[in-house]
Amino acid sequence: MTDTSSAIGTAFADAGVTGWLHALDIDTGAELDWQGHQLVCTASVHKLPLLVALHERAAAGDLDLTEQIECPPVGRTAGPTGLAAMLDTARLSLRDLAYLMMAVSDNAAADLLLRRVGLDAVNRTTLRIGLTHTQAVHSFGAAMAMIKEDAGPDGARALADPHVIARLRALDPARANRSTPRDLTRLLAAIWRDTACTPEHCAAMRRLMALQVWPHRLASGFPFDDVHVAGKTGSLPTLRGEVGTVEYPDGGRYAIAVFTRSVRSAAILPAADAVIGTAARIAVDTLRAHGKVS
Question: I need a labelling partner for 199 at 20 to 30 A (CA). Which of 11, 42, 75, 193 fits?
């Protein structure tokens, strides 16, 4: 797979990013790795382990997914989508909060679920599945608060300064929610193989991942009506990532995790988004060709 590695490296370089990738054939176990063992900050991708922990507790009877949660505007975790952007009190079930968390990456919904599930429960779940390099250390609101504190009095404007970016604790895998691309494809495979939880709950998680609204990263590499993509994005200053699955009409199923860091601090970098889909497509095409040969 030397040619594949070269193509992936070239794609990352052309996009002006450093990249980390792991791709896995869910059914055969064949894999493709580009620095996939390296620790990365997961950002909103860590909403996926939270989703699994939520369903694990529901399967055990510790909570009811139809339980209603009051969501007042005061004290909500900040964010640009979902409840985080709303102005009035809302009342939602746990499963509908999970929908907002996964479909539009709603930080407020995620932290309401995290309070109900517990940070320790998320870490117990990832350890049970065997994700030895995956750790949740803070809420999503705490991550935003760290960025605000580290940015200083100039606020968001300071995030254009490379010196400020360099001191952000939220971008340090030693101090932030973290995992590896390899761990995350293992988690995806467990959900798609119905081993992360009961088959009923795994099906519910797959449904939510398929409802994600962002098409500009992983899905951009697979622009076909008969290829099904389900994923979860994560973003922080200079950091972009997505984990997800790609399913082909012939039954092929592939788990992919791609993260990138850009030298440029601009919030809008289309090439840095698109290369996630490009690199994923190169990896999946290689796994599919390998499977057909063998």
Answer: 42
Residue with tokens 């099904």: 228
Contacts of 149 (CB under 8 A, 6+ apart): none
* R_g of the chain, CA atoms, integer Å: 18
Closest by CA position to 197, among listed 41, 286, 65? 65
Tokens of 175: 């101090």
The reported pTM is 0.95
Give the DSSP per-residue string, 23-79. EEETTT--EEEESTTS-EE-GGGGHHHHHHHHHHHHHTTS--TT-EEEE-STTPPP-
Q: What would the mean pLDDT of 122-138 be, rounded to a whole number?
A: 98
Q: Residues 38-94: pLDDT tens digits?
A: 999 999 999 999 999 999 999 999 999 999 999 999 999 988 999 999 999 999 999
Over residues 122-136, the mean pLDDT reads: 98
- For residues 275 and 260, the answer to whether their CB atoms sit within 8 Å is yes
Give yes or no for a contact between 205 and 70, defined as CB atoms under 8 angstroms apart.
Answer: no
Pairing outcome for strands 253-262 and 68-71:
unpaired
Phi first, then psi, for residue 46 (nearest 5°) are: -70, -5
